[in-house]
Amino acid sequence: MRHRSNQYPELDCAAPLVRIERLSKQYVQRGALTRSKVTVQALDQATLTIRRGTTLALVGESGSGKSTLARCLALLEKPSAGAIWFAGDNLTEMNSKNLLPFHRRIQLIFQDPTSALNPRLSAAEIVMEPLAIQGEGTKLWRRRRALEMMEAVGLPARWEHKRPLEFSGGQRQRIAIARALALEPELLILDEALSSLDLANQEMLLQLLADLQAAHTLTYLHISHDLRLVAQCADEVAVMNQRTIVEQQSALELFARPRHRYTQELLEAMPSLESICLERSA
């Protein structure tokens, strides 16, 4: 099934929602055996663009810098150098107070919903939590909003009192999506958000995300190591290698005519349709 859902061709020439320019991130750590400080380069002058209303997939091997870039874009980490532009505003030049409104406009969904959700809260309380933090409405309004968002991601409102461990992995990720959408963000960052799920749940959540994107003109940064999944959902693909972006193209162009040698190696290692069928029938 084709999930790619950019139904807004007029956006193709629009100004990008996100522009990351020469972004770098360094961490200073103490050596394991000495007291000397060691500088670790996690990002090295990474540059990419995400157009409003589209899905950009970010791919690369573990340790290439994908999650560090996501955390910088989600305002959880401060970059060491470079710039992050969001809807025309340079976030890297803002102080903490001026960044507050952007925390609701950019939401991050993690790989493991079990560790990302508070096990002591009910599903509705989890979805209500960001609304309470932002001081949105009354408690009654927040509950109604939470139930509305649960229904929007395919969870019946009657399950509002269930705790996270009473749900399946796919259902827990739906709770995480509902929580992220409660604040009506413009950008949703999915950091390997589907990688821990089976193929059936991946398929269902891809369709859900496509439907939500079409309904609300959401923009997605989809971080994944699974090129089969990327081929289903991405409008564009950016490739990371050794902590920087080595290539960004439309998904169709990248899979047909990869430019960078590293991208070619990734595609050569991608399982063929025949091998995937054999694996599933074994």
Description:
There is one protein chain. By secondary structure, the chain is an alpha/beta fold. It has a single domain (9-117, 187-281), classed as Rossmann fold. It has helices spanning 66-73, 96-105, 113-116, 123-133, 139-152, 169-181, 199-216, 227-233, 251-256, 261-269, 273-281; strands spanning 16-30, 37-51, 55-59, 81-86, 89-90, 106-109, 187-191, 219-223, 236-241, 244-250. The strands form two sheets. A six-stranded mixed sheet has the order 6-7-8-3-9-10, with helices on both faces. A four-stranded antiparallel sheet has the order 2-1-4-5, covered by helices on one side. The longest helix is centred in the C-terminal third of the chain and has 18 residues, at 199-216. It starts with 15 loop residues before the first strand and ends with a helix.
CA radius of gyration = 19 Å
Shape: globular
According to CATH, the fold-level topology is: Rossmann fold
- Structure annotation, total helices: 11
Share of β-strand residues: 15-25%
Order of helices and strands: EEEHEEHEHHHHEHEHEEHHH
Helical residue percent band: 25-40%
Indicate the mean pLDDT.
88
State the CATH architecture.
3-Layer(aba) Sandwich
* The CATH fourth-level homologous superfamily: P-loop containing nucleotide triphosphate hydrolases
CATH class placement: Alpha Beta
